Amino acid sequence: MKTTNSQRPDTGTLRKQKIARRLAEIPKKYRKIYKKAVETNSKTEAIKALCLECVCWQKNEIINCSCLACPLYGLRPFLKSRQPAKTDGFSGQTQAIADRTVPKQGQTEIGPVLIAKP
Fold it and tell me: Each residue of 69-78: pLDDT tens digit?
């Protein structure tokens, strides 16, 4: 059975109803982000809301996201730094430790620490 245009709710009303239903399913902690995304058309908040929804509202899972093919992967929110730490490839130590300075005359090296020779 076909419905006529006069029997369908307008798009704005239907969208508001769907948003209200979705908000009821979202943990209270994240409702503000979702509301801001849909009410202000904020791209940043939309990305946050979409990423959070994708990982079932587990913020830490965004940081550990393994979906490398996702178009939003490079835009993931809640990362402290956009630049991944360089590692030495073996022990996971940061490049700063791996590239530590060479001991100067009168110093000896014990691990990453330089100390004066006695």
Answer: 999 999 999 8
